[in-house]
Design a protein that fits this description.
mainly alpha, c-terminal domain of poly(a) binding protein, about 75% helix, about 0% strand
Length: about 120
């Protein structure tokens, strides 16, 4: 009796890996074994960087809010503390957007904190 293999499933698995490795440089995009390692590493980076993206955006928002707050005569911590005490529900993302695109609206918010 001949040895039974599962050729269609094996080909599908290899094809899936090679499709994910499209555009990779050199053998990483053509040879299954090398492509498999490259794809696995790429997935690890993607998982890690989905979390790092949140960190880096938060840092960017804080830097923008701090710069706008200092233009209005406040520090970042005093602005955020004042907003918390006043019960404001504006988050950092919205505040950073206001600071960048609508500085007069941000100045009005900063004025409510100092008053």
């Amino acid at each position: 009796m001949p040895r039974a293999t599962n050729k269609p499933a094996a080909r599908a698995r290899r094809k899936k890996v090679l499709n994910r490795a499209k555009g990779y440089w050199g053998r990483r995009g053509t040879i299954h074994t090398v492509a498999k390692h490259a794809v696995e590493k790429g997935l690890q980076y993607a998982y890690r960087d989905r979390r790092n993206r949140k960190r880096s955006f938060r840092r960017l928002w804080i830097a923008r809010i701090n710069a706008a707050a200092r233009i209005n005569g406040l520090s970042y911590s005093r602005l955020m503390g004042g907003l918390r005490k006043s019960g404001s529900t504006l988050n950092r993302k919205v505040l950073a957007d206001l600071a960048l695109h609508q500085p007069e609206a941000f100045a009005a918010i900063a004025k409510t904190v100092t008053a």
